[in-house]
């Protein structure tokens, strides 16, 4: 009983909790701007899809918010986004930032390590109790 509580406590302390504000955003160079859209190269970011939201920031002003946008099309490595709100005019001097989506739980290494380690510890505790 005592070891079970210790293991649960250790697992809770060791579990990696990440708040949304701590998730890093990937930065993309804005290549073109019109009145209501902006375009940026997606490089090797295959996770940029239609409907993904992001923000444009001014790197010269400590990443001050310039605009919010939603991706409306992705073709040939270029994403086109509709500007949904802005604080100032967007230019190619600004940077588009998009937060990468979370990896599903079943694709995370920590899940599989925890499953195997938990199974091994459970099996060892069960056989020791006999």
- By helix and strand content, what is the structural category? alpha+beta
The best one-word shape is elongated
Strand content: 35-45%
**SSE order:** HEEEEEEH
What gyration radius follows from the Cα positions, in whole Å? 22 Å
Average predicted local confidence, pLDDT: 86
- The helicity comes to 25-40%
Distance between the termini: 15 Å
Tally of helical segments: 2
According to DSSP, the number of beta strands is: 6
Low-confidence regions: none
Strand order of the largest sheet: 1-2-5-4-3-6
Largest sheet: 6 strands, antiparallel, barrel
Describe this structure in words.
- The protein has helices at 2-14, 109-129; strands spanning 25-33, 37-41, 53-58, 64-75, 78-86, 95-99.
- With 130 residues, the protein is α+β, with helices and mostly antiparallel strands.
- It has a 6-stranded antiparallel barrel.
- Strand 1 (25-33) and strand 2 form a beta hairpin.
- The longest helix is centred in the last third of the chain and has 21 residues, at 109-129.
- The protein is elongated.
- The relative contact order is 0.19.
Write the layout of secondary structure elements.
Layout: H1 2-14, E1 25-33, E2 37-41, E3 53-58, E4 64-75, E5 78-86, E6 95-99, H2 109-129
Antiparallel strand pairs: 1-2, 1-6, 2-5, 3-4, 3-6, 4-5
